[in-house]
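SEQUENCE WITH STRUCTURE:
===
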Amino acid sequence: MEEDEGERLIPEPGTDLAKLLEYKVYRRRWFILVVICLLNSSNAMIWLSFAPVADQTAQYFNVTLDQINWLSLIYMVVAIPVSFGTTWMLDTLGLKTSLILSSWLNMTGSILRFISILSKYPTWLMFYPLLMFGQTLCALAQPLVIFSPTKMAALWFPEHQRATANMIASMSNPLGILFANILSPLIVKNESGLPLMLGIYAFPASIACLLATLFIRASAPPTPPSASAETSNSEPFLKGMKLLLKNKAYMILLLCFGCGIAIFTCFSTLLEQILCVKGYTNDFAGLCGALFIVFGVVGAFLLGLFVDKTKKFTEVTKINMCLAALACIAFALVSQMKHQNFAIAAASSLFGFFGFSIYPVAMELSVECSYPIGEATSAGLIFISGQVQSIVYIILFQLMTKQMAEAPDVTCALGDNSLLSWRVPNMVMAAILSVGVCVFVVFFHTEYKRLKAEASVTQGADSKLNDDIDNVVETE
C-alpha cells in the first residue's frame, strides 16, 4: 500500500490551532479497520459454526452433544490463560504483530478443521481430536483480534470517531455469529453437508491472513490523532494491572458486564438445543440467532453515533442493560412454549438490540474509567471475566437439564438422546443477568478520565496561546 498523507482535522469552536497542526488522521486507518472486521468476523464464524447444527455434528462424529458444545467452550477455556499474554502483546509489541499472529492462527486452524472432516466416514479416535486441535488454534487467535478494536480506535482515530470505529470493529464479531447462524443450517441440511461448511468458513480466514500479512505495516500512525493517543500505554503492564484491581468502578464493570457477555455467549451456544426439544426447527433457531445479531448491530450503530456526539457512556450502558435483562426474561418464558414462533423471534430481536448493542460502548467505558492504562489491558480483562463466567454458566446449565419422558414434536436429530428440558436453565440464565444488571445500575459511578485528560490538554494549550498573544501585545 502506498503511504497516505495525513488529513488535517477540521477545527471546532474553541479548539487550539497549534494542536490542529500536530494532530492528523490517515486514510490507512480505514484499511486497518476493514482487516480487523474481516478477521473478527471470520473467527466468530469458526467459533459458533457448530452451534446451529450441534445434533448433526454429533451424529456425524458419533459423539455426544456435550462434546460438540466443547467445540465452542474451548474458545472460553483457551481465552482465560492466553488473554493475559494477549493484553501484554497488544500494549507492548503493538497492533501489527498481534493482528498478523492472530490471522495466521485463525487460517491454520480453519484449514485443519477442514482436513479433519475430509474422510467420508470419520472415526472419533482420529478425526474429532484433529477437529478440536484446529478449533483450539482458532481459539488462540480470538483474544488477539477481539481486544484490538479499542486499541485501534485509540491509536488511529480522532476523538469524535473513536466510539464509531470501535463499534464497527466490535460488531464484526457478532456479524460472524450471524453468518454462522444463517449459513450453517442452510449448508448442513444433513450430516453430509459438514465438509462443505468447513471449507466455506476457511476462505475468509485465508483472505484476512493475506491482507494482514502483506499490507499492515505499522502499529500506529506517524503522528497521533488525539491527545490521549500520545500517552497510550503510559502505565507499564504489571503496574496497570494492579491499578485496575484497585479501581472500584472498573471492577464493578468487570464483573457485571462480564456477566452480560457470558449470558450472550450461553444464548448463542445453546439456542438450537433449547428450541429443538419444543418442536422448533434448526432453520428457525438460526433465524432467531440471526435476528439477535442483526438487531444488535443496528442498535450498536445507533448507540455508537449517539455516544460519539453526547459522551453519555454510563447512561446508555445502564439503560440498555436493564432492557436487555427484561428481554432475556421474556425469552426464558416464551421459549418453553410450543408454537410461539413470533414471540420467540421478537424476544430474541429485543435481546440483541438492547444487549449486544452495548458491547462497544461498554468497552469504551472501560477505557474511560481506567485511563491512562493501556486500552487492550482494560478491555481484555473484561473479556476474560466474560469467558470465565461463560464456562461456569454453560457447564452449570447443562447440569441443570433434566431428561424428558417424551416430546412428540421434537426436531433434534439425536432423538431420545437429546430430549432435555431447558426450563430451569432458562430461568436461572435470566435471573443471573438480572442480578448483574441491578448491581451495575446501583453501584457503578465513574468520571471519564480520558476525555478529562484530553480537555485539560486543549485548555492548557489554549491558555498558553492566549498568554503568548498577551505578551506580544504588551511588548508592542
Q: What stands out?
A: Confidence is low (pLDDT under 50) at residues 11-21, 472-476. The beta strands are 6-8, 24-26, 402-403, 420-421.
